[in-house]
Amino acid sequence: MTKTCQEWEINPASATDYLPPVQMQTLQLARLRATVTRAYDYVGLYRRRMDEMGVSPEDIRTLADITRLPFTMKVDLRDTYPFGLFASPLQEVVRLHASSGTTGKPIVVAYTQEDLGVWTDAMLRTMASCGLGRGDIIQNAYGYGLFTGGLGAHYGAEALGATVIPISGGNTDRQIMVMKDFKVTAICCTPTYFLHLLDRAADMGVDIRELPLRVGVFGAEPWSDSMRRRIEGASGIKAYDIYGLSEITGPGVGSECCCQAGLHIFEDHFYPEIIDPTTGTPVADGEEGELVITTLSKKAMPMLRYRTRDITSLMREGCACGRTLRRIKRICRRSDDMFIIRGVNVFPSQVETALLAVEGTLPHYQIVLTREGGLDRMEVQVEVTPAVSSDKVGAMEKLQSKLAQAINQTLGVRVDVRLVAPQSIKRSEGKAQRLIDRRNMQ
Ligand SMILES: [Zn+2]
């Protein structure tokens, strides 16, 4: 019989997840003060900004004083490329990672041996939070290399005592063979890539539901609850959302638990705040805004109040799993994902939620923006199930207008919906490309 989540054994490494809040805050304050002192002493950019604002490390006396500190933005990492934000000499840096920017140079992040230990601890607790442990066989399909996903998940899963298959991304047919032959119980990858695996498995005559696979540890891109329902329905696994970003450590900043109701932040290492993205001021607890994170344990590259661009809220309520770590709502959108069409702000995730609520669609879609005669046009292309696709034209037309109506209701703008055959939208082996904006190409 499947155990309810409260009956899961607590991994000893997860003890901090259950710390009484007062103890957690004491720990956070001590670590915050040490981090700010380190950043001020060793990183020119932080010293300059704090001097300009007239704030010194000694001014941080309570956790609330964090709002006196300057923000850090992605552009700061670009401007100081490659090593300008390091607080440790290179002799102490044992690992570098980099994330490819959309333009120009990548951003570089650094780890001391101790930082790697913290990261491993956070990823171990992530895996434990998704119900994994010794005896699990984990197929790690996150990319190994400069991207933090692969090695982050790898070290966490090994520290957990699970059996790790470091297969990395790509080579889908081999992934399916390994999953089947090695009796894999959990997979780590982007939700988009898992959908791709499901499709390919079906083509190869492999029914994922009949394999021992029971858990998906999915992250590195925003995805909606409707997408989760589709994935779980099609595969019979539990699909957990995890959160992280290279600038802070990589994966392992936060994770869902058995309740699948918000992500616990490992706040003994990563201190969360929510701010109004326009004014930069903190919002009230429970209100939506931009997630800002300060690292509390990092040595090589401390981050003060890093603006993630991810839109979420801190949840007030305690969690049924018993963890005392605060939770954030699932991140379905990023402030830089947003596009404006005819004056209306739109996030791809809103389209996703509206689309997938309608029967007959597949979780593969793309939004194409064009400009015709000075007017913006938005077309949503969505794949339909083979049953709908082979049906009479009437059924297609009905579905099309139903979808257009659903999106129209959600967004308040008129969009064109184009139904396309299964498998016709290009698949991604990493993050999905949901938006194609051709407005400035015409
Ligand atoms: Zn929980």
Key traits:
442 residues, Rossmann fold, GMP Synthetase, Chain A, domain 3, 2 domains, nine-stranded mixed beta sheet, globular, binds zinc ion
Topology:
Elements: H1 21-42, H2 44-53, H3 74-79, E1 93-99, E2 107-112, H4 113-129, E3 137-140, H5 148-160, E4 163-165, H6 172-181, E5 186-189, H7 191-203, E6 215-218, H8 225-235, E7 238-245, E8 250-256, E9 263-265, E10 270-275, E11 289-295, E12 306-312, E13 314-315, E14 327-328, E15 333-334, E16 339-341, E17 344-346, H9 348-356, E18 361-372, E19 375-384, H10 386-390, H11 393-411, E20 416-420, E21 435-437
Helix pairs in contact: 1-2, 4-5, 6-7, 7-8, 9-11
The chain binds zinc ion.
What does it look like?
The chain is an alpha/beta fold and 442 residues long. The chain has 2 domains: 5-336, ANL, N-terminal domain (Rossmann fold, 3-Layer(aba) Sandwich); 338-437, 2-Layer Sandwich (GMP Synthetase, Chain A, domain 3). Helix content is 31%, strand content 24%. It has helices at residues 21-42, 44-53, 74-79, 113-129, 148-160, 172-181, 191-203, 225-235, 348-356, 386-390, 393-411; strands at residues 93-99, 107-112, 137-140, 163-165, 186-189, 215-218, 238-245, 250-256, 263-265, 270-275, 289-295, 306-312, 314-315, 327-328, 333-334, 339-341, 344-346, 361-372, 375-384, 416-420, 435-437. The chain has a 9-stranded mixed sheet with strand order 4-3-5-6-7-8-9-14-13, with helices on both faces. The longest helix is centred in the first third of the chain and has 22 residues, at 21-42. The chain is globular. The model has no long low-confidence stretch (mean pLDDT 92). The chain binds zinc ion.
